[in-house]
């Protein structure tokens, strides 16, 4: 375990916001967590576990404890003719795990290539891309309760997964620290190629595509649209894609017959937030040091590395107002604000 005081979080959030944490604690084992849970200060203090901070916006300095996982084991739990099961530490870098799996020819998570962040955060956030969400592969989530020191395993059903949502995002479950995620991969993968851009690239280049081929193409698409967080600070998609009633979508379609949209099984329609923001003419827009990325309007950036959390939040609010005024649609941030 490592404990640091007055610690800059700049390297721990992909937006590159220079906020300070009163305490920054790195844990490397379950024993570390048990040790911490016996500490009264730890029990009472505000505490936020973070991964690589790829979905966080620090609005100001953080008064409390930031808890960082270095649980980095990848344990083979078992296999049969069809599947292989792994128990993966919450501190494993997600994309390293994806690469290891696709290198072995195992399938199921290749569409989630190059998503920044750690395994624990991926399970909380239910990361998704190109028609796949991580929950489809999650068998169980192993946790540690920071007040009661109890270890508890949540089955996938108990995790209440939905679009970019899980139980662990709800206030009542904030004290559960994710330690490991049990994931199931396919030995004979059936590739998910519903996303038109991906399907096109795959059919042009590969006659018998493998998960590794899909990974390569997903990486190429992402690199063409999304900024590399190591070069330009961002948190990926800043807003969730809003889901609207069919009537709202019909009204939208009258004005914009070619508006992209995804019909949902319940009759409602998901509209890409990126398109809404773009149509408001905001691509490339700047507000102080914060900006809207030129190649994908859903991505807010720390344009010159000097943006504060407040500036990014002000830009987000301005975008929400513009989209609301033009389309009557509310955009909900996907990024979590930390005060
Ligand atoms: N669009 C525009 N202008 C823009 C951006 C998008 O017109 O500036 C249009 C595109 O042409 C397309 C549609 O909006 O018709 C959707 O855009 P895209 O395919 O780029 O995907 P997205 O809806 O913007 C979502 C996820 C991404 C994920 C991609 C691919 C959310 C909030 N975002 O983006 O996830 O990689 O689909 O599956 O669901 C993330 O969560 O950080 C993330 C990057």
Give the secondary structure arrangement, pairings included.
Elements: E1 2-8, E2 20-27, H1 30-37, H2 40-44, E3 47-50, E4 56-58, E5 62-69, E6 74-79, E7 83-89, H3 94-103, H4 119-125, E8 128-129, E9 132-133, E10 138-145, E11 151-155, E12 176-186, H5 196-205, H6 211-225, E13 233-237, E14 243-244, H7 246-255, E15 262-263, E16 269-270, H8 273-279, E17 286-287, E18 290-292, E19 299-302, H9 309-327, E20 336-338
Parallel strand pairs: 2-5, 3-5, 4-20
Antiparallel strand pairs: 1-2, 6-7, 7-12, 8-9, 10-11, 10-12, 13-19, 14-16, 15-16, 17-18, 18-19
Helix pairs in contact: 5-6
Bound molecules: uridine-diphosphate-2(N-acetylglucosaminyl) butyric acid.
Give a written overview of the molecule.
It is a single chain. By secondary structure, the chain is of the alpha+beta class. The protein has three domains: 2-69, Uridine Diphospho-n-acetylenolpyruvylglucosamine Reductase, domain 2; 74-186, Uridine Diphospho-n-acetylenolpyruvylglucosamine Reductase, domain 3 (2-Layer Sandwich), CATH 3.30.465; 233-338, Uridine Diphospho-n-acetylenolpyruvylglucosamine Reductase, domain 1, CATH 3.90.78.10. Helices cover 27% and strands 28% of the residues. It has helices at 30-37, 40-44, 94-103, 119-125, 196-205, 211-225, 246-255, 273-279, 309-327; strands spanning 2-8, 20-27, 47-50, 56-58, 62-69, 74-79, 83-89, 128-129, 132-133, 138-145, 151-155, 176-186, 233-237, 243-244, 262-263, 269-270, 286-287, 290-292, 299-302, 336-338. It has a five-stranded antiparallel β-sheet with strand order 6-7-12-10-11, with helices on one face. Strands 1-2-5-3 form a four-stranded mixed β-sheet. Strands 13-19-18-17 form a four-stranded antiparallel β-sheet, with helices on one face. A hairpin with a 2-residue loop joins β8 and β9. α5 packs across α6. It starts with a strand and ends with a strand. The model has no long low-confidence stretch (mean pLDDT 97). Bound molecules: uridine-diphosphate-2(N-acetylglucosaminyl) butyric acid.
């Amino acid at each position: 375990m490592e404990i640091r005081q007055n610690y800059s979080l700049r390297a721990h959030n992909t937006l590159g916001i220079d906020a300070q944490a009163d305490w920054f604690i790195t844990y490397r084992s379950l024993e570390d967590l048990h040790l911490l849970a016996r500490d009264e200060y730890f029990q009472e203090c505000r505490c936020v576990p973070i991964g690589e901070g790829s979905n966080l916006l620090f609005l100001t300095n953080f008064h409390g404890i930031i808890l960082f996982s270095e649980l980095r084991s990848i344990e083979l739990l078992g296999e049969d003719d069809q599947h292989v099961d792994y128990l993966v530490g919450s501190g494993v870098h997600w994309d390293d795990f994806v690469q290891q799996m696709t290198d072995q020819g195992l399938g199921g998570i290749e569409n989630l290539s190059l998503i920044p962040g750690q395994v624990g955060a991926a399970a909380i956030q239910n990361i998704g891309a190109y028609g796949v969400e991580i929950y489809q592969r999650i068998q169980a989530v192993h946790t540690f309760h920071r007040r009661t020191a109890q270890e508890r395993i949540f089955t996938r059903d108990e995790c209440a997964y939905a679009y970019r949502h899980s139980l662990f995002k709800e206030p009542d479950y904030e004290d559960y620290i994710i330690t490991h995620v049990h994931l199931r991969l396919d030995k004979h993968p059936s590739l998910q190629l519903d996303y038109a851009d991906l399907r096109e690239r795959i059919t042009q280049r590969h006659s018998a595509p493998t998960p590794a081929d899909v990974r390569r193409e997903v990486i190429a698409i992402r690199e063409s649209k999304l900024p590399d967080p190591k070069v330009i600070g961002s948190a990926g998609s800043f807003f969730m894609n809003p889901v609207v009633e069919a009537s709202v979508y019909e009204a939208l379609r009258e004005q914009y017959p070619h508006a992209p949209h995804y019909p949902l099984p319940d009759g409602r329609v998901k509209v890409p937030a990126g398109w809404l923001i773009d149509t408001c003419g905001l691509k490339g827009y700047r507000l102080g040091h914060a900006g809207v990325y030129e190649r994908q309007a859903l991505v807010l950036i720390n344009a010159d590395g000097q943006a504060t959390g407040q500036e990014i939040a002000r830009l987000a609010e301005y975008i929400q107002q513009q989209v609301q005024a033009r389309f009557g649609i509310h955009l909900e941030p996907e990024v979590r604000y930390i005060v």
